[in-house]
Amino acid sequence: MIAPDAAHEIKLSDYTAPDFLIDSVDLTFHLEPHETRVRSQMHLRRHGVHDRDLVLDGEGLTLLSVRLNGHTLSEAQYRATAHALIIPNVGDDAVLIIENHIDPAANAALEGLYLSSGNFCTQCEPEGFRRITYFLDRPDVLARYTVTLIADAAQYPVLLANGNPVCAEPMADGKHLARWVDPHPKPSYLFALVAGNLTLIKDQFITQSGKTIDLGIYVEAHNADRCAHAMASLKHSMRWDEQTYGREYDLDVFNIVAVDDFNMGAMEN
Q1: pLDDT digits (tens, 9 = 90+) for 36-69
Q2: Cys-Cys link to 124, which of 66, 129, 173, 181 (CB 3.0-4.6 A)?
Q3: Is 246 exposed, middle or buried (0-12, 13-18, 19+ CB in 10 A)?
Q4: How far apart, in whole angstroms, are the C-alpha atoms of residue 49 and residue 237?
C-alpha cells in the first residue's frame, strides 16, 4: 500500500521562483483499479536566465518512458529518484511527454488518484498531483489542462474533470472516452478527476448576460433525493457573485460531486 509521508514544514523564507513554467498539459488516463496508465504531454519553458536542470516532482510512480521534443530519452539521459524526475539539457522551450503507471486501489495516502467505494477520486491539495504524474507541483505554476479519460463504460459511466466537456464517445471492448478542456490556467492542486457510477441531478443557471450554464450534482444513488437544497444554494451563490462583484461564471458547466467517503470534506476544484 502507498502510505502517507511524514509531514514536513514549508517556510515562506525558503521560497524561490520556479526554474521552469508549464503553459499547457494534455493528460490521458487509461483508468484501471491497479494499473492506471497516465500519459502527460507538457509544453514548458525556461523561467529566467539559468542553466539548471528540469526537476519534476513525483511520488509513488512507475515511470515507463520519457520523450523530449520527439526523442525518446534513455535512462542515461535522466535521473528518477523517489521524489523527483531530473532532466538536464531541456532547452528554453520544450515539449515533454511522460508515461507512467499508478495503482489507485493501493493508494492509502488518499492523495493523488485513489479508488474509494468503487469510484475513482482525486485529492491534489496541497501536493497530491505529484502522485499522479511527474509535474511542477507547486501553486505558482499555472497551466491550461486538456484531460482525456478512458474507462470501462459499465463500471464507470460517469467521467468528469475540470473545465468544459468537449467529447464523449464509445470505444472498443466496452470502454468509453470523455475529454475535458479547461481554458483557464490553474495550479496542479486544483486538478480534479472523478470516474464512477453516480446519479446526476441537473438544473440550469442563466447568467446576467443571458448565458445558460448547465449545473450538475453527482451523487451516489441513495443520496439523489437530498440535493435540492444544495442546488438552490449553488444558484443563489452564483447570482450573489454577479450582484455583489459583477463576476459572471466563465465556463459552460458547473459540477459538484458529493460522495459519502470523500476524505477532504470539500474541495473547490
Answers
A1: 999 999 999 999 999 999 999 999 999 999 999 9
A2: 129
A3: exposed
A4: 45
Q: What distance in Å separates the CA atoms of residue 6 and residue 244, rounded to the nearest whole number?
A: 42
Q: Please report, as a single letter, which amino acid is at residue 73.
A: L
Which pLDDT band, with edges at 50, 70 and 90, does 260 fall under?
A: confident
Confidence of residue 8 (pLDDT cuts 50, 70, 90): confident
160 CB-side CA count, 13 A: 24
Residues 37 and 149: beta-carbon distance below 8 Å: no
Backbone phi, then psi, for 183, in 5-degree steps?
Answer: -75, -10
d(CA 234, CA 231): 5
Proportion of the chain in helix, strand, coil states, percent, rounded to 5:
15, 45, 40
Residue type at position 252: D
Strand order in the sheet with 84-87: 54-57, 84-87, 79-80
Check the CA dihedral 150-158-41-82 and report its sign: negative
All structural domains of the chain with their residue ranges: 17-196, 199-257
Task: Provide the CATH topology of domain 17-196.
Answer: Immunoglobulin-like (2.60.40)
The percent of residues in the chain predicted with pLDDT above 70, rounded, is 96
